[in-house]
Every structure is written in C-alpha cells, then in structure tokens.
Amino acid sequence: MTDPRVLRSRAGLSQALLELLESTPLEQITIRDIAATAGVGFTTYYRHYASKEALLQDLAAAEVRRLSDLTIPVYDAENSRAACLALCTYVDQHRALWSALLTGAFGFVREEMLRQGREAAAARPHSGLPGDLGVVLTASAIVELLAWWLRQPDPPPAALMADILDRTVIAPAAPASGKRRTSTTGVVDKS
C-alpha cells in the first residue's frame, strides 16, 4: 500500500481514534465519530476498515511495533531493566490508548506481541526453554501485567512496574549466558 491518499486517510483515521480515546471510552466511540474527527466521509471510513475493531487492530499492530522499537535496542545493549522502563514509561504516557487496546483488542495485542517477539527471537540466543515457549510466556506475561496495571484505580508508578516486569518476566526468560542487567539501585548483577 503506497498510494499517498490511502496512507493519509488511514493515518488520519488512526489519529482520530487516538484523539477520541483521550476523552471517550472505546465502547462509546462510533465510526461516525472517528470519520468526523478525521475529517473524512462515513463511506471513506469503510473503504479502509470494515469495523471499529479493524482500525483498533491496525493501531494495536503499530503500537506493539513502537514498543519493540523502543525496547529492543536497549535490551540488546544488555540492560533489561532500562528496556522495561522504556516500555512502562511509554505505556504510562499513553494510558488511554493502551487501556483501550488491552480492553478492546487484548487478544490481538497478545498475538501481535507473539508475532513480533518470534521475529526478534529468531536472531537471539534461546532462553533454554523448549521451542518458542520463552516468547509465548514473555509476551503473555507482559500483556497480562500491563492490563493489570492499567486497571488499577491507584496504579503504581512506571518505574516500579518496570522493576516488577524485569524481575518476574524478562530476567528469568533471558538466556543463561550471563546477561547483565542493571537494577534500580544501579548495581549490575548477573541473571
């Protein structure tokens, strides 16, 4: 898909949904609302997406890619805690969007994390778990942890969630090659 008009329309629709999610729960947003906010006709919306959920899935794929782009370079630099902090900080800064994604597109977000995790894992040492079990467990745990965090009425800060994510999910799944990670205290330890 390289037609600039199509790309602009899709980008406008995604941006409109993002704007609406800042003030309105997903279930209260209509396709007409999205089209009006994007400045396109109702029928234009349906040329690009069959439903509100289809747009949400497209948005979820882009957001999971953004998380990967933020975290993989840091993780590859052997600092899993910093990668977790980057992930949690981004999600915290985009709470309304991620709350909608993990409510309205939970399964799709998990599947997209699995797909992208498998791509990333192909070029990395294995965690010692059979097959792609490490990817499945890690992606599932990240999605569940984020969903839990975003449901909390008084959520813990991003730094604490990053510590929890690193200690309970990322560090245990790291290859047993002596990967270095830095804790919140700045102490480098071998996991």
Number of strands: 2
- Average pLDDT taken over every residue: 83
Helical residues, percent: 55-70%
Tally of alpha and pi helices: 9
Biggest beta-sheet profile = 2 strands, antiparallel
The overall number of domains is: 2
Order of helices and strands: HHHHHHHHHEE
Distance between the termini: 44 Å
Query: How are the strands of the biggest sheet laid out side by side?
Result: 1-2
* Shape, per Cα inertia axes: globular
Q: Structural class of the secondary elements?
A: mainly alpha
Computed over alpha carbons, the radius of gyration is 18 Å
Low-confidence stretches: 177-191
Percent in strands: under 5%
Walk me through the structure:
The chain has helices at residues 4-21, 31-38, 42-48, 52-76, 80-93, 95-104, 106-121, 133-151, 158-173, and strands spanning 180-182, 188-190. By secondary structure, the protein is mainly alpha-helical. The chain has two domains: 4-49, Arc Repressor Mutant, subunit A (Orthogonal Bundle), CATH 1.10.10; 57-179. A two-stranded antiparallel ribbon has the order 1-2. α4 runs parallel beside α7 (106-121). The model is unreliable at 177-191 (pLDDT under 50).
